[in-house]
Amino acid sequence: MSFYPQFKQFFLGKSLPTSAHSEERLSNAAALAVLSSDALSSVAYATEEILLVLVAAGSGALGLSVPIAIAIIALLAIVVLSYRQTIRAYPQGGGSYIVARENLGLYPGLVAGGSLMIDYILTVTVSISAGTAALTSAIPALQSHTVLLCLLFIFLLMLANLRGVKESGQIFMIPTYAFIASIFLLIGIGLFKYYTGQVITEYPSIPVTEGLSLFFILRAFAAGCTALTGVEAISDGVLAFKPPEWKNARLTLLYLGIILGLMFVGISYLANIYHIVPEEGQTVVSLLGRQILGTGLVYYFVQIVTLLVLLLAANTSYADFPRLCYFLARDGFLPRQLSLLGDRLVYSNGIVLLSVCAGILVIIFKGQVNAVIPLYAVGVFTSFTLSQAGMVRHWFNEQTGSWRASAVMNGLGAIATFVVLLVIISTKFLLGAWLVVIAIPVVVSLFAAIHRHYQYVAQRLSIQGIAPRSYIPRPKPEVITHPAVVVVGQLNRGTVEALDYARTIADEIVAVHVDMGATDRDKLQEKWRNLEADIPLHIIDSPYRSVIEPIVNFVSQFEERHPDVFTTIIIPAFVTRNWWDGILHNQTTLFLKNALRAKKSRVITTVRYYL
């Protein structure tokens, strides 16, 4: 084994066969921990984002944080009730991309998909940055290493997910429920101390830099709407629940709404009565902890579990982003490489892409939560709106049962989230939201361009116009002087030309195809009989989803049967019009040629088909 496979196996573990791929079913308690850590963790920074806006209008404006929090909870209730309808309508899981595409059409679906992709990248960036802020609040000496710590956490999450971390309820439950308990403990002790007169505080003198206005209040409201991020995760993961899946998912979503609402209002109310003012290097949760709990073990416990739940929140994106990329790549809107399972039965390319994008944002924004937040909610509420609008269309198409009530509920959700989306864009546009407003149509345009390319390639390679050919199987010569192996990925025009070339040079030809689990064997063999009946086709199973190793082994065995002659290995390859189009296709031909050279195969020919 060469160095790279050993290095890869050491860090990522041994390859797993496709047969080991199974879906873990979760109890409601475990599912709440696994699927809701993103939403619950927003408590760690949502109140702070409201206060960071209000503080510009002086201490008198900070009291508005509570009514703003209550308004956000009302919005949360609408979103939760709306997504409960989505779960009932899509018991197999109804992500925004699927719901919008099925009910509103292709481009609304792509907008929802692009918005969600951006949202997942920002979720990792915000969660990791907020988790690092919790750590540096407890240990101020680490503040100068914020970016490095963020990148380290992203790398560790990437490594863990590339190894195939299971969504194990037991592992996720401990930090998630510890976080919930610590926040309710903080709220309980804080309220007790305040109402028993043990704490008397007042706001420090704060200079007024901005006047109080409706637009100003709406900006604070938009900042606090980050509390709703991640609420849709349960509707995406319905099949992760134990039967009856959709009923358990609806109930768990209700629990999430109640717990999140109580924690968010509780922290906002504590920040108000304890006169908390945001400080550089200290989170609001840390400031509350220091005032209420002191700086003992309980305070550090709160900070540590906050860090852990924020890491889990980022990990939610590591589960959802590669899955979304799989759907988009399967439909031809992203590079096909993103639809392939890696050695550890995870979508490795999606995991790496997410890590790289989040790492770039961490470097650009220097790991500062308040710098990234203005970008955050645009994608979330875009996908919320399209999903709920799609559900209204769904109910009007179905018209079964209490469809009118369901349509009204989803219609209310669509209107509410659309209004909030407009508020977020208008209030945060100059603060950074313009980047996302521009990025979404750019991403959708990229989807469309990729899809056009794949359609063009499929059209150029199609064998539909080739008439059936009746080759007579050639008798095997007594002495074979020039055997050939033709590698067959798909039976297309490029493959047909490679086989025609093989007939001109070889007196014995075999074709080999690797089935990684997705080949329709009957269909392939029927096409083969119509076009290439004179050449035997060998179909090899690949339980570990590798193309290279099975072909190399087949060629080695074939060459052993012909020890005294040169065997030509013929590899069909199509050549794209532009060099950058090659990014959309895997480099199997290159890797295969290198592997065959390493095995000392002496004649390797590439037959190119120019698109």
TrEMBL record:
GO terms for molecular function: transmembrane transporter activity. The chain crosses the membrane at residues 50-83, 104-122, 142-162, 174-196, 216-241, 253-277, 297-314, 345-365, 371-391, 403-425, 431-450. GO terms for cellular component: membrane. The keyword Nucleus does not apply. It comes from Anabaena sphaerica FACHB-251. This is Amino acid permease. It comes from the Bacteria. Keywords: Membrane, Transmembrane, Transmembrane helix. It holds the Pfam family AA_permease_2. It is found in: Membrane.
